[in-house]
Amino acid sequence: MTLRSLLFVPGDRPERMEKALGLGADALILDLEDAVSLEKKGEARTAVGDFLARRPASDVKILVRINPLDSPFIADDLTLLAGHRPDGVVLPKAEGAASVRLLRERLPDGPPILPIATETPAAIFTLGTYGEVAPQLMGLTWGAEDLPAAIGAATSRDDAGKLLPPYEMARSLTLFAAHAAGVAAIETVYPDFRDLAGLAAYAARAARDGFTGMMAIHPGQIATINAAFTPTDQQVAHAKAIVAAFAANPGAGALQLDGKMIDAPHLKQAQALLARAGLG
Fold first, then answer.
1. Distance of CA 32 to the CA centre of its chain
2. Which of 45, 109, 112, 119 could form a cystine bridge with 146, CB 3.0-4.6 A?
3. Backbone angles phi, psi at 40, to 5 degrees
């Protein structure tokens, strides 16, 4: 299943969890970390455990974002996950394969892991190691908020909301790291949830660049994100034409289609698009 939209739901807001199942997101991320105050960590853990225990039948994937591996809350988080298995674990402040291995050691039979791969300065230099643990991953994503705080920067975006160069670099490296590992590349959140036009442009850019899905912080963002990461009828038709052209000419290295040259990279792109559309 392609995860186009992954909606964060605060772990201490149980009234939102079941409702969120019907909002159209492909996955929910029940958050035990940033969305929950220190005083409510235990309350959030209980609420998430209760929801997982009585989880309604649904095609929506349920992920849990735990606290960082070096936090005082991690032991209780892992106890929760050992007793209630979600579909995935979102690992904040991950630092490459070493963090994935450590989580798997502490949660041996746990679900696939979605690391947030750029939240510390050291994490940037470990992005190339995720291929070593690819079978343990459900994808790779990044964040643009914790990293500037970690290095004493004022912000990750300019006044127009555009990512500044250091964080564009982190985004690009995460994109390449995910594809190098052969796992889903998930774009980070768009913070201004009222700006749907800006979100649409940002999500379309992410899909164009090679991301396959995106995280959301508000239900109002889901439809826009799903649309951006769903191939259009025109794109599907063109991809089918490319695949058909090569199927009809199995020995050809390059062909003409609609007056343009196509070759092996175009075929690979077409096959990937059809797979995302559920037609591969």
1. 17
2. 119
3. -110, 10
Residue type at position 148: P
Structure tokens at 254: 């390059």
* DSSP symbols for 118-150: TSSHHHHTTGGGGGGGGGGBS-EE--SSHHHHH
Q: Tell me the two tokens of residue 226.
A: 């799903």
Contacts 24+ apart (CB under 8 A), 74-82: 74/106, 76/41, 76/42, 76/45, 77/32, 77/45, 78/106, 78/107, 80/45, 80/48, 80/49, 81/107, 81/110, 81/111, 82/107, 82/110
- Count of CB atoms situated within 10 Å of the CB of 205: 12
How much is the pTM? 0.91
pLDDT tens readout for residues 203-257: 999 999 999 999 999 999 999 999 999 988 888 888 999 999 888 888 787 888 8
Cα–Cα dist 148/55, whole Å: 37
Please give the single-letter amino acid code of residue 18.
E
